[in-house]
Amino acid sequence: MTPPPGLTSRRPQVPPDRLLAGLVPPRHFHEASFESYRPDREHPSQERALTRMRGVAEELAAPRRRGWFARRAPAPPAVYLDGGFGVGKTHLLAALARAVGPDAAAYGTFVEYTHLVGALGFAPTVRALSQRRLVCIDEFELDDPGDTVLMSRLLRELGDHGVALAATSNTLPESLGEGRFAAEDFLREIQALAARFEVLRIDGPDYRHRGAPHPESGLPDTLVADTARSLPGATCDAFGDLLHHLRTVHPSRYGALLDGVTLAALTGTAPVGDQADALRLVVLVDRLYDRDVPVLLGGSGTAGLFDETMLRGGYRKKYLRALSRLGALAEQGRAVAVPGPADRT
Q1: Which region is the signal sequence (predicted)?
Q2: What are the C-alpha distances in Å from 306 to residues 92, 231, 275, 276, 300?
Q3: How many domains does the chain divide into?
């Protein structure tokens, strides 16, 4: 029987204009708006954040000043949404990008912007993004000193070009980098980043009530492969082969790697022993989640996928986010492979 195609057979070539065109809110938040955000009355900070984000959108609706007038204009707004999981930070960020418009706003995760610089080069990235009124950065994080210097310089140059900034994170800007590297050695860069932003703290419980991610057990590998074989657009890969393949593909192309994929099946899923492999897997999971691609896991599923050392380290939030998202996608995949009683009738 012919095996289903795998992601390992794909080597996407992504032209620069497509990378830039892809800087839009993910499918999950494509319809997000200020009107659809429902602030919790018990947490007034949510209403305050909504009001401020509306204000930013109104500021950016005014004609952009050029030349001598631009030098006399006030600094463009730069807002930073800080809060826990599930309080609506990404919803508000996507709503802001939508209100400003796709031609005037760029929207991407922190990692996507660093990858964009890696793919295009620093100066071309600045030239391209400086044509926008707004740059939105979801999941702001600093993983290493190089990223700290890179983002500090990028945001400084965009601000100098009159570009407004909006970011979300689970960490206050002055605390970025803690636990990941010797942050005190780069305190000046971190403080410069923090000084650029007006911090909007958003309180409240996780409206999705996800809690800590729980391990998802894997299905039999034969069932995983057979299910993928029966579904148009599904892919199937051995987990170890996929990790090896990801080393050969620039992370900026992981989205293109998933073009047309309706379900991603993985056999032999097992704990990831190398942190570089683990971080690449996190990026792939983010792109799967952005595109609502169900995942079918064989092997050990998500159990022990990232070991305790990883989960206690500086990238802890990344790994927990990946486990939460992968668990949700695996539930969708399991529903396809093992349909409930109503689906069998």
Answers
A1: none
A2: 30, 29, 9, 12, 12
A3: 2
Distances (CA, A) of 93 to 14, 16, 64, 170, 235: 26, 24, 21, 14, 32
Query: Same domain, yes or no, for 186 and 253?
Result: no
Q: pLDDT tens digit string along 74-87?
A: 789 999 888 877 78
What tokens were used for 21? Answer: 């065109």
**Residue 177 lies in domain:** 31-202
Final residue in a domain of this structure, among 157, 183, 202: 202
List the 263-267 sheet strands across, edge first. Answer: 234-238, 263-267, 295-297
Give the bridge partners for 237, in sequence order: 266
Q: Which two tokens stand for residue 231?
A: 């579904």
The verdict on residue 12 lying in a domain is no
CA distance 219 to 205: 33
| Residue 96 belongs to some domain of the structure | yes
Last residue in a domain, options 161, 180, 202: 202
Is the model's pLDDT at 218 over the cut of 80? Answer: yes
pLDDT of residue 169: 79
